[in-house]
Amino acid sequence: MNAILNKLAATCLLITSVAVFTGCEGEDKGPDQDYNGNWRGRTSHGGSVTFTVSGDMVTAFQINDSKAQIWLQQPQDIKGNSFSGEGGELFDKTSVSCTFDSATHCTGTYSIRKLMGSWEGTFEASRK
User: Fold this and answer.
1) What pLDDT, in 10s, does the model give residues 16-54?
2) Model's pTM, two decimal places?
3) Apex CA 85: angle with CA 79 and CA 89, to 5°?
4) DSSP the chain
5) Residue 108 forms beta bridges with which residues?
6) Domain that holds residue 115
7) Is 92 part of a structural domain of the chain?
8) Which of 44-53, 100-109, 110-119 has the lowest mean pLDDT?
């Protein structure tokens, strides 16, 4: 009887392990395509956006806009076809998100909140 219970327990453990790993498969997935290179574009307010992709990371990101300058200080993971990042301190918060719609084009949003107001916009960029 113990041998049957041990086999049953081992089978249940195996099924549970497979279910857990299968359920997590897409969560930490790297980029869908090769996005490596330098990206440049324009914001909805006439500013510029530049960033660099290396592997599955955005290693540098900057927006220069008429009322906002945003830098992402830390590298950001690309998961699937997008990345996002936040920065700032108590009264100075920034947020950026970007979705790649192809290996050479992306669209995104950004916002910055300061003590005296906020600013937000969109951007498009292409890999050169």
Assistant:
1) 333 333 334 445 678 999 999 999 999 999 999 999 999
2) 0.74
3) 160
4) -HHHHHHHHHHHHHHHHHHHHHHTTTTT--BSS---EEEEEEETTS-EEEEEEETTEEEEEEEE-SS-EEE--S-EE-BBTEEEEEEEETTEEEEEEEEESSSSEEEEEEEEEETTEEEEEEEEEEE-
5) 98, 123
6) 37-127
7) yes
8) 110-119
Does residue 84 belong to any structural domain of this protein?
A: yes
> Cβ neighbours of residue 110 under 8 Å, at least 6 residues apart?
43, 63, 68, 70, 94, 95, 96, 97, 120, 121, 122, 123
Residue 60: which CATH number? Answer: 2.40.128
The total domain count for the chain is 1
Establish if 106 belongs to a structural domain.
yes
Burial of 60 (0-12, 13-18, 19+ CB in 10 A): middle
- Residue 32 forms part of a structural domain: no
